[in-house]
Amino acid sequence: MNDFLIYGAYGFTGKLIARKAHEKGLAPLLAGRDEEKTKEIATELGLPWRAFSLGDSQSLDEALKGKKAVIHAAGPYSATAKPMVEACLRNGVHYLDITGELEVFEYLATLDSQAKEKGIALVPGTGFDVVPTDCLAAHLKEQLPDAHLLELAFKGGSNMSRGTALTMLENIHKGGAVRRDGAITKVPGAWRTREIPYRKDKSSLSVSIPWGDVSTAYHSTGIPNIIVYTATSPKSLKMMRLMRHIGWLLKGGPLKSVAEKQIRKKVKGPDDEARKNNRCYVWGEVKNHDGEVKQAVLETPEAYRLTAESALLAAQKIMQSKDKSGFMTPSMAFGKDYVLEIEGAERKDL
Q1: Is the dihedral of CA 226, 228, 234, 236 positive or negative?
Q2: How many Cα neighbours within 13 Å face the side chain of 44?
Q3: pTM for the model
Q4: What angle do CA 148, 225, 186 make, to 5 degrees?
Q5: pLDDT per position as a tens digit, 136-145
Q6: Which of 36, 71, 99, 243 is 20 to 30 A from residue 177's alpha carbon, by CA?
Q7: Quick one: which H or E segment has residue 199?
Q8: Cβ atoms < 10 Å from Cβ of 197
Q9: SS3 for 274-307, per residue?
Q10: Are strands 346-349 and 293-301 parallel, antiparallel or unpaired?
């Protein structure tokens, strides 16, 4: 199968997806903005490649010609999603990405009718952002159809990549967000904390964050009130609360530039051993107005490993489908049990 494109193929996660495709005997076209870096990963894997920026619409259209799908792996998606998805609409190519950015999910949802007219699917968040949490949300909705409150949480097991860190820096000044009565509502950073039982024998301090499911879980389930948490430490929680007051300093200017340089210099992402051996834990809870509660937990492979496998599997599924079009979350596109198709993922109702 060589009829899809991976853009951002030389980034940390892009390389993982490209290598996984090569392992499976697939031959996607690899692309990215930097010619030297794109050529390097393509030469390593013996795959075709092109180098161009997303601002070069002619080169982008040429690269998408004859392709069925694109896995967009170049963030921050607040800057890169629009030109790529517009090109996909022009060329009738399915769009998938690995974003976790709220605004991007909401933007793509507004393109639902256009995508349906073109007969293409828009499926953002096909990695750890937001496959496990989205599938768990859909599962819990099935357990309690009249739920009015959904709370999700996750606990990772490895360091973040450079791209993830840069995206966090890009959005740190925006504070937090929850879904309240159907609407995305801004709240202070680190707005709420909760002890979450990710594993039977241990609970962890967790803090609310503006995770992608504040958008996607609403589209997947229709549950009007949603909060998402991540495990944290008291020290990190203190720093997150400090960001309420000084986060605006990182919106732009010299301080942001310094932070970017430090991230590019020091952040490398999890090594091979961490990706192979570490595990992630996801927890979810739904409640209805009668006070009934349902909970479930999900254990998955390490986040970046899951992302590479899930994004590639999603692209294969969407290209093989003949009837999927419009905006879809992962669970909408592939069902609530999609995450269980990833080797090593296990779900348990509590």
Answers
A1: negative
A2: 17
A3: 0.93
A4: 170
A5: 999 999 999 9
A6: 71
A7: strand 193-199
A8: 16
A9: HHHHCEEEEEEEEECCCCCEEEEEEEEECHHHHH
A10: antiparallel
